[in-house]
Structure prediction request, 363 residues.
Amino acid sequence: MELEGERVRIMSDFYNGNKILTLKDINRKVPGVFIVEGTRTAGKTTFFNSFCVNRFLEHGEQFLLLYRNKLELTNVDEKFFSDIKNLFFKDMEMKEKKINGGAAVRLLLDGKECGFATALSQSKKIKTMSHIFNKVVNIIFDEFQPEDNMYLTDEVTRLRSILTSVARGRGEMSRYVRLFMISNLCSIVNPYFTRFNITNRLRKDTRFLRFDGGVYERTVNAAAIKAAEENPVLRAFEGDSYDKMLMGNAYLLDEYTLTHTPHSMGNYICTVYYNSKYYGVIEYPYEGVVYINNNGDRSRKPIMVLRPHDMQNNFNTLRPYTNTVLKFSLAFSQGMLRFKNLECREMAFEMIQQLSLMRGYYI
Prediction:
């Protein structure tokens, strides 16, 4: 399933996704979800946009572009095609036409219908027009991790609804489609990594990772990093959290491996019982951090549990204490969560994931 032909030649300094396209999922089956995140400006979007156009030209496979909000469904033809046109498709033209009151956009390549675009916010409308997508095979969801960390309510459910609508038709109840999810490094605690059980499995040196139904790749592009380092405007901001994300060596919203022991006076928030161990959640106002240790005080109430099978007498689920957990989650989103060790980090991620299920979005 590699890129084919002269139209989509790979430029050596940019991202090449041919490797991930050959991988099987954790069950050694053909994956349907391909997640790629990493260095900004590395060429991830260029590769997959070119891949989809090439598959249309060579095999007649139409594609679908996914955005988050309806307002993003403007000038889709230019946003999608302008860069790859200059690189690979100089003699071709792409035009767009809005359909179903703007809930979707039809894309035409040299007058031929090649694909569509829609938004997750339009998932209900897409159910009623699923028939028009019966030739769609490849789906691109670019920037699935927003830099402002603002997800739609029930966003994963909306995505699944659209995938179900697209996979109908052509004589099959559910046909094979590919979903390409592309992003810069924003946060490992996001609704998609939670759904695919990726969060707790990622490590600093993870390059590829397999999960049920999909594969994941983290890419660090040396040429893109060097170009950013040599750009005087970007050098002026060197060292901040965005710079670390740009260089591909840290998530924008996370200091997710940071272990630290505060030394000032703290306020004990709660005890969490997880995996047969007691964890303490302590706020240190002077240092501005929330700290997790694995020496939770069993006499302090409340004692919270994250999973039903951990429930015991006098323990509570997170739901009655949403404000307490919100403080915890806010500390994470601001990069002010600290852990005694990686075991404590695992518990913290589980706690934030449970909050996301309760609230429907991430702080």
Summary: Residues 2-9 have pLDDT under 50 and may be disordered. The two ends are 38 Å apart (CA to CA).
